[in-house]
């Protein structure tokens, strides 16, 4: 008897392109969201996008509440929740990079309110996914939440964002290659639930960036268009899978451990990109695609070595040998690597 079922939550509206920042009021109206919104933003995105969007809402007769956060922390989530309850708002809009959108996502999930995502940097796939990532001490928690009701991604704003944030988003997407490899391995060896559709979408997303890496250049709206579409697809793959598996494998464990050992040394996307070079080598050795991953990262000016990350060799080796302990997720790292094996893979791939 067939009794399988699934419940997939996806954004209702995705608006991407030139000057779509001016369409946020229309997007909210199309969703039939009523009442007062709360904007969750951070200092630079507030000036670039949140204040102009607030002016659009004022012109429509709506007075939004605004909270500006400095860091992505659980204390910030609590602060947003408190402001939302005190101001009597009906829905949230996250305007900014990863931290503002993740905070809005987690707060809206707690409040049982819808939220919309307005990214100002194409830095990671959290702009559309059903998961939020928040640092907590020397670790980082990935928390299940509701995906945004809508995403409004203005390519003009995204193209003007710091280039390293864009390359971090690209690297995060390219690492989907090894995340899916790990997912398939876990399905074969541990009977982990697996979605062929989500895996195929995630791989296709990585291929888009690898195939178009030479077109990804600073300040170009077309580049922002390509990267943003890829980030959208990656986030949708996670929603279809009901987990972060399509976009998070051993390369993410490596990055999370680096966050503990060398906090703030490099951007998340850059760390997973370098991790993906090494884990791709573990999956396929010299016959694998690790060189393609490395070359694509280099083409978009993303780091491919420990030096370019600003992390010393000893920290890379320690992360490789200990990151399997972070969470109960089976990957190519299995029950861990010894130091000699870790040094060999890092050396052969040119990471150290």
From TrEMBL:
Q: Which GO terms describe its biological process?
A: glycerophospholipid metabolic process; phospholipid biosynthetic process
Metabolic or biological pathway: Membrane lipid metabolism; glycerophospholipid metabolism
Q: Which UniProt keywords apply?
A: Cytoplasm, Lipid biosynthesis, Lipid metabolism, Metal-binding, NAD, NADP, Oxidoreductase, Phospholipid biosynthesis, Phospholipid metabolism, Zinc
Cellular compartments per GO CC: cytoplasm
Kindly list the cofactors needed: Zn(2+)
Give EC number(s), comma-separated.
1.1.1.261
Q: Which residues bind substrate?
A: 125, 172, 256
Query: What are the binding positions for Zn(2+) in this chain?
Result: 172, 252, 268
The family classification in the record reads: Belongs to the glycerol-1-phosphate dehydrogenase family.
The name this protein goes by in its record: Glycerol-1-phosphate dehydrogenase [NAD(P)+]
Which species does the entry assign this protein to?
A: Natrinema gari JCM 14663
Organism phylogeny: Archaea, Methanobacteriati, Methanobacteriota, Stenosarchaea group, Halobacteria
